[in-house]
Amino acid sequence: MLLASTALHGAQAAATAGAVPQVAQQTGTRAFAIAGGPLPGVLAAYGQAAGLQILYPTDIAQGLSSPGVTGTMAPREALVRLLAGTGLTARFVDADTVTLEKPVSGSDGATMLDTMTVQGVASGDRGRSEGSGSYTAAGPSTSATKLDLTLRETPQSVSVMTRQRMDDQGLNEIRDVLNQTVGVTRQQSAALGSDGSEIYARGFAVSNYQVDGIPRSTVYGFGDSISDMALFDRVEVVRGAAGLLNGVGDPSAAVNLVRKRPTPTVQGYVQGQGGSWNRYRGEADLSGPLVENGRLRGRVVGAYQDGDSFIDRLHERKKVLYGVLEADISDDTLWTAGIEYQKHRSDDASRAGFPLFFADGGRTDFSRSFNSGADWAYFTHDNLTVFSDVKHRFGNGWTATLNVEHSTREYDGLLGYGVRGTLDRDGTGMGIWPGRWNSTLQQTSINADVTGPFELFGRTHDLMAGVGGYYAKRSGLDYPLWYIDGYDTSISNYYTWNGRIAQPTLNPTGWSQTNERQMAAYLATRLRPTDALSVILGSRISRWEQSEESHPNDAAGTADKRSENGVLTPYAGIVFDVTDIWSVYGSYTSIFKPQDYKDVAGKSLDPIDGDAYEAGVKAEFFGGRLNASAAVFLIQQDNLAVADSGRFTPDGGQAYKAAKGAKSKGFELELTGEMLPGWQVGGGFAHTTVKDASGQRLLTYVPRDTLKMFTTYRLPGSWDRLTVGGNVKWQGDIYNGTGSRRTEQSSYAVVDLMTRYRITEKVSATLNVNNLFDKKYMTSIQSYGYYGEPRNAMLSLRATW
Question: Which SMART domains match (predicted)?
């Protein structure tokens, strides 16, 4: 970090001392129709329309307005008109990148450039949200099809959680980001790092995670459900099936975390946070050129967090470090390499909440802070990932990309959570579930693809083709779980229990290993029969295989292998531009997911087939600064496993049979971006109903209706240093169980507030108050209860340069 800092300082000084050579800007003309307004939003719309990357420090654009531009002209001329009256100048640093600068006068009367920090789009990531100040996508997204498509051009529902919104709401973990995403529901029921929480979308669990578009294995432990957000520029959530790029998974949603990239000029920040329950966090980010000509750039991000919780005794901490280099091997070839490390630990951690009923059927009434974990229980995760990619731009508009990534992980959970048995009124009858999980995981992924335009019948179309795959392995010692000879699991008095109970001796009972491979070829094209009509067609052919071995110390080992060959996953979509603002669309996608259930012959059931149909309307206002969408959807699952009553597998287990599965249908409304100058909004409403083949409602513990809306407003005039905001998160009622053991959580709303004050041009303070009215509600009522966070606050102090 010291070496990088020195190099950055030297490069910045050199750039300031000497003139940077001009690079030939884009030629030709384009049609522009960009309304006037606050300069950051106008520049975002211009960058999208011109296909350019606009880099500038946030502070030089604050409070400035642009007259906009309309007409057909060269991108350079349009930019000059946009900047009229702002006092800013523009400079091309390469063929696709423009920086904005504010001339200042030196003491000797000479004109020099103000020290630059970068906000905007990095050369390797045109969709970058950092520095845009917006709650909507700053550029194209590839998460659905790997084609460069804007939200309006994508025939699926895509939500983008931008860097600005994550900073404004203080969303430091992926679970918090998803909890604020339209159409996504988090069922929090345990400490961070356990498997006691689930994410749902459109009625099904979310198991598909990507990082920079690289899919993660679905083997236990590979999900990125505990990722810290300091490393990431944005999160893109594609709702519905995403089989074209993932292959294996559920037709719920795919979550793509997009890493931060180095910037052509120097920027950075340090931030400190302190809040309720002794929570403290420090974060730093430094980025910029490492050599004088700017062809080698670097970025370093670090974060440390430590704190308690509203849950008694629970203590969580994490360490995060990220470094990435980006080099211009040639004018057309970009090489990126990086390393990411995250370490998470939760102590006195439970895997569940508290019992909902007494043994006699009556309802319990525990405090929100009750902790059912033993005082020696913990969860740890160590994740190390190295990655590299090479992008080459050909002269005909085509781009070839090669991605390689290797991830090594280790999880270790010492389990001891007191929800065993049935609770009597006198506090007896309960015990703990003890055990240990410990495994090492590795995944190596390779993907190669090409994208570009082609001519057909006198019109220009787009094509993407690629191949890729991964090999994933989980291996580790097996330890006793749940039942341990000679160990007393009982809790004498559940009401007064403070987690103190003898720690069991857990010696390895053997070892086990899981191997998973997936290889695929995929293809997608956007055909443009007319200027207003786009037809997107794609397909993926996959091979998947998984083998499992188990080797107990005192018995012969067992092995099982399954595979699926030639699985075809189609994709089809259509988008029609009704006007320059409004579009209508429809799409069909599918996905498959292997399952472990067996029939009476001991054979695994065929994979679940998921099909998703979606139709809707999208709008893009103010040149893309405000996006709106409305969608209806239908998801069907076949080969869903149901118990084959009275029949058993050869090993004596319950036999299952494949049946026509569940059906999910509903609608979603979303609005993100700038409503008026200085007024940002992000959120929407979602409704989902899930039923089985007989019409019986499923997942009654997941809300059918949710409303999420966050908004901020930067005050005008002499009050422009102050930004105020608020958030409302409402969900409908949920229930679980039947008869006297039916649990209900009525509909409720949680209100959050935020305010930010810009102390100086470089220093700001932000206060977030969550659950302002201290609403008491449960986030999970499945097998056990778990409460949401009470009222809490976090104060952040940030300095940028």
Answer: STN
